[in-house]
Automatic annotation (TrEMBL):
<keyword id="KW-0520">NAD</keyword>
<dbReference type="GO" id="GO:0006099">
    <property type="term" value="P:tricarboxylic acid cycle"/>
</dbReference>
<feature type="binding site">
    <location>
        <position position="98"/>
    </location>
    <ligand>
        <name>substrate</name>
    </ligand>
</feature>
<feature type="binding site">
    <location>
        <position position="105"/>
    </location>
    <ligand>
        <name>NAD(+)</name>
    </ligand>
</feature>
<dbReference type="GO" id="GO:0006108">
    <property type="term" value="P:malate metabolic process"/>
</dbReference>
<dbReference type="Pfam" id="PF00056">
    <property type="entry name" value="Ldh_1_N"/>
</dbReference>
<dbReference type="InterPro" id="IPR001557">
    <property type="entry name" value="L-lactate/malate_DH"/>
</dbReference>
<feature type="binding site">
    <location>
        <position position="112"/>
    </location>
    <ligand>
        <name>NAD(+)</name>
    </ligand>
</feature>
<dbReference type="InterPro" id="IPR036291">
    <property type="entry name" value="NAD(P)-bd_dom_sf"/>
</dbReference>
<keyword id="KW-0560">Oxidoreductase</keyword>
<feature type="binding site">
    <location>
        <position position="131"/>
    </location>
    <ligand>
        <name>substrate</name>
    </ligand>
</feature>
<dbReference type="InterPro" id="IPR010945">
    <property type="entry name" value="Malate_DH_type2"/>
</dbReference>
<dbReference type="InterPro" id="IPR022383">
    <property type="entry name" value="Lactate/malate_DH_C"/>
</dbReference>
<dbReference type="GO" id="GO:0030060">
    <property type="term" value="F:L-malate dehydrogenase (NAD+) activity"/>
</dbReference>
<feature type="domain" description="Lactate/malate dehydrogenase N-terminal">
    <location>
        <begin position="6"/>
        <end position="145"/>
    </location>
</feature>
<dbReference type="Pfam" id="PF02866">
    <property type="entry name" value="Ldh_1_C"/>
</dbReference>
<feature type="binding site">
    <location>
        <position position="92"/>
    </location>
    <ligand>
        <name>substrate</name>
    </ligand>
</feature>
Amino acid sequence: TRTPVNVTVTGAAGQIGYALLFRIASGHLLGADVPVKLRLLEIAPALKAAEGTAMELDDCAFPLLRGIDITDDPNVAFDGANVALLVGARPRAKGMERGDLLAANGGIFTPQGKAINGHAADDIKVLVVGNPANTNALIARSAAPDVPDDRFTAMTRLDHNRAISQLAQKAGVGVEDVKKVTIWGNHSATQYPDIFHAEVAGRNAAEVVNDEKWLAEEFIPTVAKRGAAIIEARGASSAASAANAALDHMHTWVNGTAEGDWTSMGIVSDGSYGVPAGLISSFPVTTKDGSFEIVQGLEINDFSRARIDASVKELEEERDAVRALGLI
Ligand code: NDP
């Protein structure tokens, strides 16, 4: 029998946590044959709610679930962690200045990065979901100097999945016929969903669609502002789809991309495509055997270049702001 994989989830008592934990425990994170131990990190006022979720997890009698620990101490939560899903973050409150938001998140992601550095397993893989995800990942990354760059990632998979779905609907095909969509840049309204290299049933997606007005005025804003549209419709922010994307991100990272396809992940830039090295920005990546590589050699047209540059500029501003706060 396999040794259980230690999976740490922060913000475990929140909405995304509630949509995430049951699917982790039923095998949708790592596979139907991989036992897991859950470590739930919460802030003290939310520990009781996390215990309630743990009671429900017990009540599912999931065969793969080999234990649940609940704590408000990051050093305990990340001890021996193989996979970490950093969901809890300080949301932007009305009227909050960006500097205050980033400082509050520094207070969360710096100690978590240090705890990962000091206590996580050697094969630790980190996914940051909590917003501003790219910059929170940068903060955690810089607090963990002994952990390699390629273990810290930020989630743009929900944007990626949203783009696939919108494109499939426009082209009148099933989602399985859409390949090689890319999200570039920041997980924010400036993100750039790129279909110039995407394929629809084996044909170039931009040629199939052949509608630049739709691309600029419908597709890109629909994908980038989907979160706000969901809040407007549901009266609450997306939770199940965000949890689903977190599972997809980690499952793909561990188990690999399909031949002839790629995914999008926020990763530490190596300078590819003119994205300054060290920024955590979304790229097209292929994954294999638990590691990933940026897809190289894509031709970037002027339309794409301007949009990638705008999103990267926003990431540089966020980086400069957290640097000024002494967080990186
Ligand atoms: P959610 O579970 O709904 O969201 C958690 C985070 O995910 C938010 O930062 C949210 O950003 C982000 N997120 C990323 N992508 C998406 C998406 N597509 N849709 C929606 N959210 C997205 O928040 P809750 O308030 O329900 O729960 C947060 C929990 O985290 C609370 O229980 C709190 O106690 C806990 N927490 C734990 C910490 C810790 O463990 N140290 C630290 C801070 C909080 P956005 O706000 O921009 O929507």
